[in-house]
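Can't paste images in this forum, so I'm doing it all in text. The chain is below; anyone willing to post the predicted structure tokens underneath?
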Amino acid sequence: EVMVGMAVLSAFESKPEMLKALSEINLRDLENPRVILRGGVVVDLGSGHFRGKVDQLSQVLEELKRLGEKPKAIDLRFARQVVVRRIEPAGTTKKEV
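Text version of the structure:
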């Protein structure tokens, strides 16, 4: 548990702007550490390769900011895919595609 926590923290320390955004590291599931960023965004990291995932998270957050989207949750567990759940703007209805 300590080793996984230190690996996650070390990955965030490698990017100072991401370390500032980090609020909490949740190690309840060691196969899928979860972090919570300031503002409440929940991020599922999955197992291993935490530095690459923090880099990927940084890029995703920059792109979401550029698009004016506010994420609720980000899932980085999948090899070549990032799943983002966003906060629905007030007054919008959910649509299925």
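DSSP finds three helices and five strands in the chain. Residues 50-67 form the longest helix (18 residues).
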